[in-house]
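## tool: complex_structure
## caller: assistant
## args:
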Amino acid sequence: MTAFPFDLSSVMQPVAQARGLPNPFYTDPEVFQVEKERVFFRNWAALGFITDCPEPGDAKPVTFLGQPLVMVRDRDGILRVFQNICRHRGMILVQQEGPIARVIRCPYHSWSYELNGALRTTPHVGGPGTNRHDAIKRDELGLIEVRSHQWMGIVFINIDGQAAPFEEYAGDAIARYADFEQPRYRCGDEGTFTMDVASNWKLAIENGAESYHLPWIHPGLNSYSRLEDHYHIDSVGPFCGQGVTVYNPSLSEDGRRFPAYSGQGEKWANGAEYPMFFPNVMIGLQNDHTWAFIVEPVTHDRSREHVQIFYTDPDVAGDEWAAMRRKNADMWAEVFAEDVFVVEGMQKGRSATGFDGGKFSPVMDNPTHEFHSWVAQQMTD
Amino acid sequence: MLGADDRLDSALLAAHAANDLPNLSRLYTQAADLAETRGDVDATCFFLTQAYVFALQADCVGTGGLHARLVAYRREE
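## result:
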């Protein structure tokens, strides 16, 4: 990789002096290609949800930044991520989401793989009716596994395989949110949705990181989640974001609440936090449900946002909770949809040649600055 | 289809068209059995391989037996 052609030192200044990332980070496809390698492949990027493959035998092909991948849950319940290609001729293996009975059979020459990636058979590889050959060493030709880790219901991947172990990379976040290391359940289809957004992937993370915009973009929150009840999470890395000291949603006229996690510290009785876990996932942590909001970078100016709501108890899937689930999902979908206007507006604004990356509020924009600074560091290291 | 009679050949083509994996495995096993009675080892193992692969994919009960036959011919690991 050649030296990166941008001086990003101003981005990494303290917040009061810093400028935001320059325009090409939002408008230039070549910068996006460098980000792919340096920001996403080198780190632990969010790929999908554990509920994408809930049952043994489930497989889901996913294209992530051009990489053909497949998530597979084997017969023992272990979820792995593989490159979705046959080791023979590079043919795409799994074409569509669904259960696999026993093996993944390549549709080209039928090399077949166990769900744990092991190469099971190589039909006719030694001539018609001969399925073995000394040059074909099956134990060296299993599916190429992509390093993965599951946390908070999210499947993370480290494509280049060189990042620090997830427990180390995310150590501070794991410690801070240990009270949420509890079972989580997908209850109802309404809690799973996607949004296509005409903006660079970073803008969704930047926007979600700060509470500064809440009273203007999300006026509905002013009644129960006021700006003065929010605080910022920064200087912890590799995540930043916001928290709220008063979490008290009204989802039912009779005051009924979803079942809450037990054994949590006092902080979570009335509080909630919304960390942006670098590079590309926002997490919502409330005592009665959590969610993950993965920003899939599609191109330099297009993203796809994948949302999954998780509940604390599988019983919430029952009909008696359906109306509240619907109301909760609608509430979050409305909040996320309100943000589309600003992230798409900022994307358009990044074409203004006079824009210098922007000036941060030293009080209200610290998490956004921290994210910019982190990206700048990844790009220049 | 090599070594298979016309009726079997037609049934195989129909099973391929329908992507009927258990039936494909069953029909290729029949073709293997016919070839085996003729003493044609290469044709037998060709059809056994086809039967085995589709049995594996569909997780058919007879997968182990097909594998064992191929191993006995030293054609499979």
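## assistant note: The interface with chain A takes residues 41-50, 52-53, 56-59, 63, 70, 73, 75-77 of chain B (CB under 8 Å). The mean pLDDT of chain B is 94. Handing back to user.
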